[in-house]
Write a structure and sequence with these properties.
Largest interface: A-B, 40 and 35 residues
Largest sheet of chain B: 7 strands, mixed
Strand content of chain A: under 5%
Structural class of chain B: alpha+beta
Helix content of chain A: over 70%
Number of domains of chain A: 1
Largest sheet of chain A: 3 strands, antiparallel
Oligomer: heterodimer
Distance between the termini of chain A: 16 Å
Radius of gyration of chain B: 33 Å
Number of helices of chain B: 22
Structural class of chain A: mainly alpha
Helix content of chain B: 25-40%
Shape of chain A: globular
Distance between the termini of chain B: 92 Å
Number of helices of chain A: 18
Order of helices and strands of chain A: HHHHHEEEHHHHHHHHHHHHH
Number of strands of chain B: 23
Number of strands of chain A: 3
Chain lengths: 406, 621
Amino acid sequence: MINRIRYGELDWKLIGAFLALSLIGIMTIYSSQHNSSDAYRQTFFLRQMVWLLIAFGSFLAVLHLPQRFFDGGAYVMYVVAVILLVAVLMVGHTRLGATRWFDFGPISFAPADLGKLAILLTLSRFFAYTRLPVTSKRRLALSAVLVIVPMMLVLKQPDLGTSLIFPVILIALWFWSGLSPWYLLLILSPFVSMIAAYYWLSWAIYLVGLMIFLAVLRPGIVLAIFIMLLNLGFGMVTPFIWEKLEGYQQNRILTFLNPGHDPRGAGYQIIQSKIAIGSGGVLGKGYLQGSQARLDFLPERHTDFIFSVLGEEFGFVGGMVVIGLFTFAFFRCLRIAVRCRSRFASYVVIGATAVIFFQFVVNIGMVIGFMPVTGLPLPFVSYGGTALLVSWVFVGMIVASEYHWF
Amino acid sequence: MSTREKIALTAIFGVFLFFAAGLLKLQIFEHNTMYELAESNRIRIVPIEAKRGVVYDREGRVIIGNRPSYTLSVVPAEEVKGRTVPHIAQVIGMDTSQVRRRMRRNQAAPYQPSPIYRDIPFEIVAVLEEQGQEFPGVSYTLDRVREYDLHLRPEAFTGHVGEVSEKELERNPDAGFRMGSTIGKKGIEKQYDRILRGIEGTDFIEVTAKGEILGPYAGKSRVRPVPGSDIILTIDNDVQLAAIEALDTFAVMRTYGPDGKTVDTFINRPGAVVALDPRTGEVLAMTSSPGFDPNVFSGVITDSVWQLIQGDSAKPLLNRPLNGLYPPGSTSKLITLGAGLELGVITASTTMPRSCIGGYQFGNRFFKCWEKNGHGVTNSVHAVEVSCDVYFYQLGLRVGVDQLSRYYDLCGFGKPTGIDLPNEFKGHNPNSKYYDERYGKNGWTKALVLNTSIGQGEILVTPLQLAQFYCGLANGGKIYRPHMVKKVIKPDGEDVYTQPELAFQLPFTQQTLATLREGLRLVVEGGRGTARRLKNDLYTICGKTGTAQNPHGNDHAWFAGFAPIENPEIVVCAVIENAGHGSEVGAPVVGKVINTYMKKKLGLLDAPVAQVTDSSAVAAR
């Protein structure tokens, strides 16, 4: 039942990269809070250390669990996750206007984390064992429905950042299961249309571009018209959806489009983050020496903006080390996905990697001012116990896929 | 390698390059900008106000000093709910809601003290010192405020300081002041603002995002302020004090009871005194009554106080020596006489064809002389002695409207004297062109010149202009520009003296001047002189009374005179509004001021009138 593991044969380069990122995280969390007036905050790095031990233990546990637990238990896990996501909306604990957690004394549990795992395994199993052809409408529709249900539940909490992770897994697996990237673009085009419709001129240019694209790709006249109508429809509902967005979400988008939009409010975070990173220079101001972090100018500096602290104190060199470690790890994951002996394992690796990759892109893009503020932490580095645990469970599945899944 | 692998690899590597480029841009190319921004985030630039220069009288006695003042503030982040605000409100006697309002209005950052009460009494500071733990989050800062010696009632020339207005900031972008700076608003404080103000220093303090002060910022050292220069004025405090006392004492209304007895009532009429040294143009005294406390402008004036000042019918804000416009009355008969002599229409001994019978019939109008019983026949100097209006009516007709106006102009009227004080008025000197515009080509008659020849009608002068004219009479026709500053003492100890500047010459020959002076002597020394009461054994005063008719009320009383006759050293001009005859009210005021000056000069002053104080004594006060 329990697998025996020959530890020497594990992919230690990959494990080492993520372990290094986790340790850099603890170090930076210490720096970000070491002179806080709040004694509780000063213990954040200790708490993160304990969580890393738990996370690494879970990683080892995943290695020892048999594959059946993952592919066989996927659908059960999916059902449990959906039930818990419904339950949390009814009896969950509300913090800062969001109902995301079940509270068990000192420990809280967010069912969305289980949801990520469940979706990853469920989609992997569905794509690995279905006989439906890649472009079949039933296959596309079924997988979409599997994702949309938990996604909507998470969106309802509300938690925009996490809810975006579900479609990311879906798109990654569609892509990896052989769906042509061009078709993928067509499927995604209505969402691009929504964003482009923010301004009528950009929307017009986008629609013209889409028509040229369709003319070149020739997917068949019926599909082409369907896609065009879908694009028009999505674009036209944009204003209504905009009205539906929470004030802070509208603000984030406006701030992204123009960081000077509200320099004391939402824009403040991005401006201060860019100042922190930029002021670090080549080698940084030195560990524990970042004035932006030390003097409270950086908001959320132990979670969403941890990379800003790092960039300020270790400069370009430090920032490149972190980005380099992630990139190296992603290459390593891709290598495993290619070498996996089973389709299920390969899908799991790609899905898990996509989740980490997506968070990485969104977070770094945010702190250097390339993307709007979404509230997604940097995986492995940011403070947050359950996030670290889930990330390491994903690493466990990636490593196990290569080592003994088939 | 399959296509999907290539795409995945490209995506991963593309993101890597994208982020690397982003870091390169921020941390290498934009590093300097971002570094500056990070530093400016944590530096708070605190201006250090320079010590404003002290202003002394000609003998080194303080007129404008600086005194310490405490400002009470609350640090919002350190406030303890339910303790800080109620306790402090009780001590300073305000409502808690009022304290809260002020805290909110002045709050800049959670850790930055929010001022709630300026210039708190020292007793409150003592309470805070003793019971500091009762007032968590309360702090006070020490700074300086201007202090004017109110005994001297000096606001006519000192002016006052106040917070710079947005207009002033716009107009002088490079003047070295910023929002919240204190600058001179009037008088010496405004005229010599740059000299008195010095140069502001700067302190660099490291703060957190919430405004918590961590200590001095290591990267930049404090820039020390350069204190302002001290100024020695030409004012003599003894003369100044005599002037205000004289204004207070002799502003008397004489009424006649039914039993024939005279009753004098002290009325404290508004008025002005200007004393000049005719040899240099130095201003020895200048005051405007009623005075006001210029310290009210040091802080923020409340609306109610402002309304009171504005609504006062005695117009305390009117700076009478420079801005008070009055008809000169008989004091300007010397211009009419001088013009007549210079134009050759009379000689000193000329008598007029019509004797004074208490008035003069001109056309269908009877122009009265102030003396109902008439003066009979007089020559020019005796006409000055008794101030006979009838003589001057006839002289004025011979001189003519435009010649008289020209002589007024040549004697310095209708244009500013150019004193080193801001906002001086130029008065009004009408001529036929003006009358044509005002009344139409044929809308006025020669009767107007009858008025102007005795200083009535539309001619308006300031007390300073009249004093300046009498300087010329006293000083052989030479007029030195009136000025306030004797010496500027720079902070490095260098002294800069003001040199007397010959402004212009009266349009009279020495012979004419001698005649005019003889008239002025007889006003005091002659048997029928209108200011006989100023006659004394020690020295001889020359001067002229004036009673300016005022369509809005009682006559304004004038006197302008100088002493000693041999070599005049002081010219004093006084006007007291609505106080009656110049001989009864004006002359004694001037006499008292001249008396103080002469007694001091002769060493006969019983005791120093003004207390001698130095700057250290003021600082300790």
